[in-house]
Design goal:
Blueprint: H1 4-25, H2 31-49, E1 59-60, E2 70-76, H3 83-93, E3 99-102, H4 104-107, H5 111-119, E4 123-126, H6 140-158, E5 164-165, H7 174-182, E6 186-188, E7 192-193, H8 202-212, E8 218-222, H9 228-241, E9 245-246, H10 249-253
This protein binds zinc ion.
Length: 259
């Protein structure tokens, strides 16, 4: 598995070798230096932007057991004042346990919603405190503060400290990897992204989600857009028609959701 540490070491050795050749054996054309630098930056950009690359850290994106037709639902960016209760009602109606990756600042003023999630058997996980547009540029101590702040909020309200973290925007960096390791959290991604926060075309969202459902899948939705309910209805119908069972993330990937 190609990781950031390995590729950085290989890149460093290659550059050193080229410099030695250039200065001690025969002069090289400057283009010879540009290609490895470009290649390295493309690799880092790819590894950082692909949640399932395991480039900076290990991220759970699906179950290893692909023999059972089990999948899990996850919701990001809440709690939301109006949409989260609709999602909770829908989950209750269908007796499904889901995972909510909550933003710390969104919990403030909506503590009762968090308590409802917990009492109805859902997992509450960490999705940073600010979900800042600049989160991926933060240093590890600032990221650590964000994750600790959200975990403390949840622990104060529910008595349980989340062990699961999903990076905002699905981007990973060396600083995120360091903070996650220091706080002993487990990073959780997805392998079916609904794009419900990006696309307004409900049919396309449904088509996309249903086409990608496979045994062991972790589905990503947002409990911040009302259109999630008809998408959930269609997903549920598809699962029922094709023999898929929706289980909790805890059961799907066999992890402890709280420290
Ligand atoms: Zn998010």
């Amino acid at each position: 598995m190609l990781t950031h540490t390995t590729s950085t070491a290989l890149f460093g050795m290659l550059m050193l070798l080229l410099l030695c050749l250039h200065y001690f054996i025969f002069p090289l054309h400057e283009f010879i230096f540009i290609f490895p630098v470009l290649g390295y930056f493309v690799l880092v950009a790819w590894g950082s932007s692909q949640i399932n690359s395991n480039y900076h850290l290990t991220v759970l994106c699906q179950s290893k057991d692909v023999t059972s037709k089990h999948i899990a639902l996850s919701f990001d960016d809440g709690p939301h004042e109006t949409v989260t209760p609709l999602v909770l009602d829908w989950l209750k109606k269908h007796e499904i346990s889901a995972t909510f990756f909550c933003i710390g600042k969104n919990i403030e003023g909506k503590e009762a919603l968090l308590q409802r999630m917990h009492s109805e058997g859902h997992i509450i996980a960490n999705h940073s405190y600010s979900h800042s547009y600049f989160f991926d540029f933060f240093g590890s101590s600032k990221i650590k503060n964000e994750l600790s702040r959200t975990n403390e909020q949840v622990e104060k309200l529910l008595g349980s400290k989340p062990a699961l973290f999903r990076p905002p925007y699905g981007v990973t960096t060396p600083s995120i990897a360091q903070a996650v390791e220091q706080l002993k959290l487990t990073c959780v991604g997805w392998n079916v992204r609904s794009m419900d926060g990006v696309s307004k075309n409900q049919e396309k969202i449904i088509e996309r989600v249903c086409a990608k459902i496979q045994p062991g899948a972790i589905l990503l939705f947002h409990d911040t857009y009302e259109q999630v309910i008809p998408v959930l209805d269609a997903t549920f119908q598809h699962c029922r028609a094709n023999g898929f069972k929706i289980v909790s993330l805890e059961k799907l990937v066999k992890i402890k959701p709280y420290v």
